[in-house]
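Chapter review: from sequence to fold.
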Amino acid sequence: MRNPPRKHAARAQGAPDLRQRVFEIVKSAVLRLNGELQYESLREVNENTPIFGGAESIDSLSLVTLVVELEEDVEKALEMSVVLADASAMSQRWSPYRSVGSLVDLIITRLKNRNG
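The token string follows.
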């Protein structure tokens, strides 16, 4: 059985400026959520910061809150709507919610698919 990918910073998905913009959107949402949660693992956010599915991860209710806020934040910042919680995302072998980088990847993929 293969291990899930861990490093996301080196991935070249989309334009670097789009990746950076999406990362900043995710980072901001995670930090806002952590203002309430006060998780040590979420104090300094980078692409490898765990979000969901591990010992240092948020609970499912907090994940729902984060996903809803991200959908709103992406629409405000990029003027494009994305759906981040659907059967496709939930059924992936490696959860797109496991880390900041995997969530950035999901958002970029959804934005690209939206634009054809």
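Two observations follow directly from the output. Residues 5-13 have pLDDT under 50 and may be disordered. The longest helix spans residues 16-37.
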